[in-house]
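Hi there. Long-time user, first ticket. I'm pasting a complex I've been working with (about 233 residues overall). I'd like to know whether the download I got is complete or cut off, because the file seemed smaller than I expected. Thanks.
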Amino acid sequence: AQKITQTQPGMFVQEKEAVTLDCTYDTSDPSYGLFWYKQPSSGEMIFLIYQGSYDQQNATEGRYSLNFQKARKSANLVISASQLGDSAMYFCAMRRDGGFKTIFGAGTRLFVKA
Amino acid sequence: DTEVTQTPKHLVMGMTNKKSLKCEQHMGHRAMYWYKQKAKKPPELMFVYSYEKLSINESVPSRFSPECPNSSLLNLHLHALQPEDSALYLCASSQVVGPASGGSYNEQFFGPGTRLTVL
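Hi, the file is complete. Here it is re-exported in full:
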């Protein structure tokens, strides 16, 4: 069975500083993808970044990077130079390659302080 | 066009009403999804359509009835709902890729959601 664990219900970060949101996962699938989504209070789920299980390099997308440690089954999201607009709920998610079902973690609420 | 649209944005209905949620995308995606999200919880998958055929039903009560009339539209028909069905209903779409996708992935694009309140 697949499982995603996010152990930080809430996080605070000062504007312009970096923050790491933790995510660990468990799966028996040999090939899978890991995703991070941002959900502002408006409700829309915004795709941020993707990491494939066979990717050798960590994914990066602008200010977002994914610290992927396959042996430890962790896929932490790093946000550099935090902005006030980064305040939102962040979900880590996983889906086996070719599958339709996405498993989400419980989420981490990020608060960026001015 | 990389947008998934959902109507209405807000819906209030009584337990005896019949209503429908609508979702539309024009990205050529052949997989469409319905999720239910309660406050402060992650989204929960309800249904998946692949090539306009129901592919996954996550044991959803029959008072929720999905419909995929064509490759761009996805409906969710609601009847005799309960107050505990009040939630944010999210629609998503993606390409359909096989297991041996060679590194590509079926990123899901989400709509803004419909906030449903059942009185």
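A couple of notes from our side: Residues 25 and 108 of chain A are 15 Å apart (CA to CA). Chain A has a mean pLDDT of 95.
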